Amino acid sequence: MPDYVFESGWEVCNKVGGIYTVLSTRAKTLQALFPDRIIFVGPDLRKESINPDFIEDNTLLKAWKKQAGEKENLNVRVGRWNIPGKPIVILADFQSYYKIKNAFYFEMWDKFGVNSMAAYGDYDESCMFAYAAGVVIESLYHYLQLSDKNVIAHLNEWMLGPAALYLQDRVPAIATVFTTHATSIGRSICGNNKPLYDQLTNYNGDEMARELNMEAKHSLEKQTARHVDCFTTVSELTAVECCQLLEKCPDIVTPNGFEFNFVPTEKEFAAKRKTARETLIRVVSQLTGERVSNDALLIATAGRYEYKNKGIDVFIEAMNHIRLANPSKPIVAYILVPAWIKGPRTDLQNRLQKKEPAQSPLPNPYYTHDLNLPEEDKVFQYLHFLDFTNQKNYYSTKLVFVPSYLQGNDGIFNLSYYDLLIGLDLTVFPSYYEPWGYTPLESIAFGIPTVTTNLAGFGLWAKTEGATGDDWKHGVIIVERNDTNYFEVAEKIKDSIISYSKLSPKQIGLAREAAQALSRKADWSHFIEYYLKAYTIAFENKQKRIN
């Protein structure tokens, strides 16, 4: 067991995507195992504004902070991450390190073969933060006098690769763990509409990186995976991708768990669900000018705006198939995906402030927040192309695009994502590229059955636990997806949704119970064992390395 664990990622105290969920939900379990000996390092991106994730504490590591500032020119803030477990977190300002950028890139090339020559975009910013994270961990290691202790440095995603390499070079006694949550080149292949799965064995990662202008990120990720003491990824699906594209198979797969104190207690659940349903129905009713029945089937997809990778395109297609089938039960579907917005629609806000129901639709009654460039937005354009514009009294199926972050202050729903999720009947996440997939796991944790695919790490895991593509007895439907069966997937999703809409109240109750029961198997109390094994592998390989 480690005496200390230092863990760093770009999403520490910085909510961007799924990695935030991995780190923030796992923190409570780690804090219980290593009380205040698990220390997170994140980027200090909000020095001039309030960061709700960060509780500054000037008494924590006070002497170290003073010494590091005076003698090592480290500019940090120390406090606690405002999440369950409240672990110690250090936010590092990395701006001052840009002046040594070229020297550091040469060092990574000279010692580890990392080619940063073609760097662009967020590469420099990520590497400078990673350098700062490495310096922070090195400084704490010496200040706390840990030379006779078992110390782990766990670095997440390609952005923190430089921290792993820095520590391997400067503090070789620290055992390094590197987790790729999705390979940068695999994500790029999919994002450029190239077939990943049928052609995977024919792809060479280095060649694809040159073709797709991904050389720097791919080189950094590949060399970090090769040199660290333990290389991990989050699913068997991504492990295969790593073996082929990075030419390095993971030492262990560390699947993503969930912390269930995010789910309301039984006493709170019913009230929160009632509030969420009323809010969801009220917004679409005021938007379309058509009263939506309280027993309508409420469905959603959610996640980062990766139109193809997250299966947003297939979700719209599937809902169009349902609309044309004109089911007897009214269905309202929501696309909860943040996009580039100006803000909430003022005409919709005005209606929501009034108590009386609207009698006519608003213009374009299929989105809740104004987009900056609607003519370039893929969701907006596809809804328009399909004429999916929620015409009053025309179809019983509605589809609403919610392009805002849901943090409780979006101006329309004013509820967080979890507080809206609880009001849904069903979720759909038809992923094409999804190394794990927190959104379906979160859904079933809240007792909301879900449809996902075999191309999501979560979907593969759920299959091993008995979930199928045929029935709802496990609370999860797994749709088989490949590079070419887009319309078949949409049709299968349609069939699954319609079959769910016909279940009796008792059958729905059983499906919800089964969903929650399955989610419990992914509790961090179960999945943390994979990380403890990763630490053991790292210690063993570190010993070989320094010998």
Overview of the molecule:
This protein is an alpha/beta fold and 547 residues long. Helix content is 43%, strand content 15%. It contains 19 helices and 17 strands. The protein has helices at 18-33, 62-71, 101-112, 123-143, 161-170, 184-191, 205-211, 215-227, 236-245, 266-288, 312-325, 346-353, 378-385, 417-421, 438-445, 457-464, 486-501, 505-520, 524-546, and strands spanning 4-8, 38-43, 54-56, 76-81, 88-92, 151-156, 175-180, 230-233, 252-253, 297-302, 331-336, 341-344, 369-371, 397-402, 426-429, 450-453, 476-479. The strands form 3 sheets. Strands 3-4-5-2-1-6-7-8-9 form a 9-stranded mixed β-sheet, with helices on both faces. Strands 14-11-10-15-16-17 form a 6-stranded parallel β-sheet, with helices on both faces. Helix 11 (312-325) links the parallel strand 10 and strand 11. Helix 5 packs across helix 8 (215-227) and helix 7 runs antiparallel to helix 8 (215-227). The longest helix has 23 residues, at 266-288. The model has no long low-confidence stretch (mean pLDDT 94).
